[in-house]
Amino acid sequence: MTVVTDAPRVRDPRTVNADLHCHSTVSDGVLEPAEVVRRAHRHGVELFALTDHDEIAGLDEAQATAEALGLAFVPGVEVSVSWAHETIHVVGLGIAYREPALVAGLARTRGGRDARARDIAQQLAAAGIPGAYEGALEYVGNPELVSRTHFARFLVDRGYCADVPEVFDRYLSEGRPGYVAHRWARLADAVRWIRDAGGVPVIAHPGRYKLDPLAMDALIEEFRGAGGLGIEVVSGSHTPAQYDEWARAALRWRLLASRGSDFHGPDESHVELGSLPPLPAGLEPVWSRWC
Ligand code: AMP
Ligand code: MN
Ligand code: MN
Ligand code: MN
């Protein structure tokens, strides 16, 4: 006689509604960390990461809120990196966020933001928009994290532009009057801070970078060589056609695949928390280890 035991069935990670990229008022999001977590839970997210730009200050609050709701939580961060004259974002997932090297590295990465903000304001003043530094600060939730997004909100509310993307197009993108070049963290440093904190480094929204295929290959090679492990495939910053393009890239480069809305707020983000489609077939989800 054959005895068949009903071993507990482990859920296929691919079916888990994971949203592993979003922002709070600790960087350039519009909702407090606890509100972002509650919203994620309300919208059906089952595994959630808060990934503020260069900052971990929202993670205690987010983690406590997630725990109270019974929502699985992954501590994260999105590190600003300068690579070959481009700004690249590296998401760190599952980080032990009190690790001193990570904390110090992020503090250094944030360090130049205030001086940059003053420069942006000076350039905007020369372009006919006075008072933008003080104006942007009214939208800032964390004085260490003044972002171009805060300037954009100020310009929209003062009627200079209709919405945030228009401000970037006209004033804040490279080549525009309010753009200030800036040096962020080095790629290898960002990857090392994340790895040494037990986390998984993931290239954020690869479809957004203005890199030709050769430069993208070089970026990925350097990222992998430094210890990088994953890439965002299904992202709020990608078109559906790009989901397939970056799925092929993830397979080709043998990178783990991630999924995240890059939610910044209800009125600004075109993608709601937890609402993206699942990963294309054949990919290894970066979140298997947390399910
Ligand atoms: P910063 O780190 O201060 O340079 O600001 C970068 C942030 O600006 C990104 O994380 C996005 O939230 C926002 N951003 C960048 N480009 C655009 C764009 N074209 N439209 C809207 N938001 C943008
Ligand atoms: Mn942002
Ligand atoms: Mn980003
Ligand atoms: Mn982001």
How is this structure best summarized?
With 291 residues, the protein is of the alpha/beta class. The chain has helices at residues 33-42, 59-69, 100-111, 113-126, 132-137, 148-157, 164-172, 187-196, 213-226, 240-253, and strands at residues 18-19, 47-50, 72-83, 86-93, 185-186, 200-203, 230-235, 256-260. Helices cover 38% and strands 15% of the residues.
Tell me what the structure shows.
With 291 residues, this protein is of the alpha/beta class. Helices cover 38% and strands 15% of the residues. It contains ten helices and eight strands. α2 links the parallel β2 and β3. α1 runs parallel beside α2 and α6 packs across α7. It is globular and about 75 Å long. It binds adenosine monophosphate and manganese (II) ion (3 copies).
Strand content: 5-15%
How would you sum up the global shape? Answer: globular
**Unique ligands:** adenosine monophosphate, manganese (II) ion
In whole angstroms, the N-to-C terminal distance is: 35 Å
What is the average of the pLDDT values? 96
Work out the helicity level.
Answer: 25-40%
Question: Could you give the count of β-strands?
Answer: 8
**Major sheet attributes:** 8 strands, mixed
Order of H and E elements: EHEHEEHHHHHEHEHEHE
Structural class: alpha/beta
Uncertain regions spanning at least 5 consecutive residues: none
Number of helices: 10
Computed over alpha carbons, the radius of gyration is 19 Å
